[in-house]
Input
Amino acid sequence: MTKTLIKCGWLVTMDPQLGDMKDAELLFEDGDITAIGQNLNATPDATIDGSEMIVMPGLVNAHIHSWQSQLRAMGSEWMTAQYMKNIHSGLALHYQAEDNYIGNLVEDLAQIDGGATTVMDWSHNIRDLEMAEQSIDGHEESGIRCVYGHGTVKPPTKPGDKPFSEIPHPRDRIEALRKGRLSSDDHRVTLAMAILGPDYSSWEIVTRDIAMAREFGLITSSHSAKPENSLNPGGYARLAREGLIGPDHNVVHGVYFTDDDVKAVIDCGASITSTCLTEIHHHWPGPAVNRVRKFGGMPSLGIDVVPVVASSMFREMQAALLYLRAQELRDAARDNGAQPDEMPVKSREALEWATIGGARALRMEDRIGSLKPGKKADIVMLRTTDSNIWPVHNPVFSIVEQAGDGNVDTVIIDGITRKKDGKSTYPEDLRRRKLADLSASSDRIMKSAGY
Output
């Protein structure tokens, strides 16, 4: 057992009992945190000097389509219909298994670089088991903690074929993965099902998919849609009423949900993940974060689609916070004719959404999302000596309102250092080759699609 001691400048644990500490120490053995406190008198095998850093939990990106990293920033001015046409009815159909591998690997490295230690990869361009296998290869190689959400491709319907909304999730693939390399929920890469859900599939299909997921002990996640585009309007509330979803289900977006929809999902124990950058970009109702919190739920955050928005959880967290603050201030001025005396949305809340909120959405809150003995050593360290951070008066304010990806000095995942001294520990010459492979993959996909 290798013992590593971190000497912290500031330690932000996100644990309600431990709180924030100045000049604390954190000890971990291999992949698990064993002690936190002042002057631990430990005899470590290695010591990390974090005396000029903020030590915090790794960020949890609860929703991203990692396979799209080949298409980064190409759709920054797309609207939703253009995204669906260009990606799902176009480019996605031209991916091969090796494209998913390289896309996932490079996106994971970007996530680690920006302080995300866990991602929920919503992998919804999968046509066969080999594509799923190579997708997982990329995650395993990168070193990130990943919930791999196996999804399915959504091609335009050809004459005589069933639409994708009437095709059940492929049991053979789920069974192969669950009985094979992703049989354990304790490994760094685990399995989930990214299903169509009630808005994008028939009622028979959604209930069948959920039953299969529960048979294999898997969480499910599904996108919501505009009511006019839903195949089962009010479907999430119905699933909740019938006991078909609970803490094992995650809804993505929910921007068009009624208050009754939000309440039904929260009350049954399911989670709602917001991707605020894309939701502000594409959808006039805006993120559901405020309604989730008002109905007693814990919001979680994700990046969603890097063809449209930045691959940064710091930016996502800041966007969520600022959107909610603006929303609250506007509502107060409209309803009361004056602004509130106190800030209505606290900075610590936003950090919760990006850490423990994501962990809860993925049913991993017993392992990640905060720093305390018994949890995994998924740790991020921010340099406080960077000009945009110094001086630190309140470490949470510095993390949420001031920090960015460039301030991330060190990233530790499962006790293994994945970024050190501001640089990835993934070999630089190999990283460069992988970037070239990503460019070649992008060129091939776009040429094949005639884009």
Notes: The longest helix spans residues 313-336.
